[in-house]
Amino acid sequence: MSWEEMKDLQLEEKPLPLETKELNGILMTKMMSDNWDKIWNFQAKPDDLLIATYTKAGTTWTQEIVDMIHNDGDVQKCQRANTFDRHPFIEWTLPLPLNSGLDLAIKMPSPRTLKTHLPVQMVPPSFWKENVKIIYMARNAKDSLVSYYHFSRMNKMFPDPGPWEEYIEAFKAGKVLWGSWYDHVRGWWDAKDRHRILYLFYEDMKEDPKREIQKILKFLEKDISEEVLNKIIHHTSFDVMKQNPMANYTTIPTSMMDHSISPFMRKGVPGDWKNHFTVAQNKDFDEDYEKKMAGTTLTFRTTI
């Protein structure tokens, strides 16, 4: 069943269960963990493309860029369906009669573009076996935290984030859905030289979308004209996507995502963390960050 059909049936008053459960030390919804065997055994295909991110790191942005590339900048084609129907979210499991990401992916004809927030060690093994191309988008920890906090406030399918002060501690401890940001970005960084992974940074994409989209084009072995490239840059800009109902998640019932609390596409700028962290919180966060990110060559910019 689609979201539109669900709205028609007036099912939006029925909230979804919010039970969570840890699996291999990673917090998930209970529905995901209950469905884990099916997720783990998902069969990837060699011509699949997987878009992987930690939550709120520019996932939808990357999806829209890739879809525009695959459709040679045809805006109408890219608005054929919601982002989440075009690019199934492989581990996201919903109660019947709604379609889970896995079911959508299995039914989808090739070539498929798929989405995941899974840490690298929990990606179904068939993706590695089939040598699937993966685009990973990473965003700095402070902006990821702020965006995830506001998203959790409006997304009734996620656990309530509680007060800001408590949420910072939960994020630092990795006690949020999909686990630790630190382990996630480091795990994918370490895997990038062993697999076909294009590792991108949100801040770089914001600074120079043309340069970063050209990296994606090269990775996907696609050639497009300068005119189409400029069209893609325009139509995947934050302000245009914010107005696109096929990308901004406004078609989902209010009981599941309440945009009046915080819009799904909120600000989309690096450095918004400065409006949230106190001086003391920032100092504590930086000290903890140094410990958790010690020994890696991975570096982030918190402003551009």
From TrEMBL:
Q: Kindly state a single biological-process term from the GO annotations of this entry.
A: sulfation
Write out the GO cellular component annotations.
cytoplasm
In which broad location class does this protein mainly occur, judging by the first location in its UniProt entry? Answer: cytoplasm
Instruction: Output the Gene3D superfamilies linked to this UniProt entry.
Output: P-loop containing nucleotide triphosphate hydrolases
The Sulfotransferase domain sits at 46-296
Task: Show the SUPFAM superfamilies listed in the entry.
Answer: P-loop containing nucleoside triphosphate hydrolases (SSF52540)
- Give the protein name, as stated in the record: Sulfotransferase
Top-rank taxon of the source lineage equals Eukaryota
Instruction: Report keywords, A-Z.
Output: Cytoplasm, Transferase
- Cellular localisation: Cytoplasm
Q: Where are the transmembrane segments?
A: none
Report the EC number(s), separated by commas if there are several.
2.8.2.-
